[in-house]
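haha ok so turns out i had the wrong file open the whole time. this is the CORRECT one, sorry everyone. sequence first:
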Amino acid sequence: MNKENLIASLKSILKDNQILLGEDVRSRFSHIWKTDEPLQALAVTFPKNTKEVSEIVSLCNKYDQKIIIHGGLTNLVGGTETNIDELVISLEKMNSIEEIDPQSKTITTQSGVIIENLINAAADKDLLLPLNFGAKGSAQIGGAVSANAGGLRVFRYGMTRQMVLGIEAVLPDGKIISSLKKNNSED
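then structure:
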């Protein structure tokens, strides 16, 4: 009964194109090396912003629902493997680069932005985002931060977390916390 209530609640906060159920779930996979193995999960959700992630996580907390986060699915540790009773929160629609500030040399971005897109956007502003590894065309920045990815330039520029100035996160109860600093000063 709880699963039906959870699904009904998810449908009330998400649009039809933001949730996969039933056989549609099997059109997905859990890793880029396992594309021939259909995903096993209760449902797949596609939030577009932190507020929607918070609402999904809150509901999952209320219904004691297990969650698996999917990003670029490039991890090497099995962190995206799922079971039929788990809910997937895919961050692929959280792919907005919110701000590139050439003066402070910072980028504010959602967690689902592809690393290569960030590298190119930084280059367009004459900046260097030194992340560079084989999966940069499909890996997402949220996964690189959470895994503290290294890459080809790690000895010169350090690990990913050394490049992070702030983060916004959703706690297991759905509460949003943030260490992001907004620069509202005028030139």
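The helical segments are 2-13, 50-62, 115-124, 141-147, 154-157.
again sry for the mixup
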